[in-house]
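Form P-L/3: holo structure prediction, ligand copper (II) ion.
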Amino acid sequence: MTHDTQLGYLQGVAVPPWGMYVGSMSETTYTVTGMTCGHCATSVTEEVSKIDGVTDVRVDLPTGAVTVTGSREPAAADIRAAVEEAGYRLTA
Ligand SMILES: [Cu+2]
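OUTPUT (holo model):
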């Protein structure tokens, strides 16, 4: 059916809205141990957000995954220091 084919084509070429950031933004995921609740996540988010160049921090509490977005990849030592300042630890 012609209509379905055209729709499929349009979906196939759709560009995700975040595509424009590729190449200029860096996203790195770290794993933090010791976070047990929303306050923990907020503490880590606040400390990591202070790092120069960091524009966004997302914390997934169940897995401890902390995704850091920035204008460049932050130094692992900076992330580690910020996490420890908040009272938690970065794995490996
Ligand atoms: Cu907590």
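COMMENT: The longest strand covers residues 26-33.
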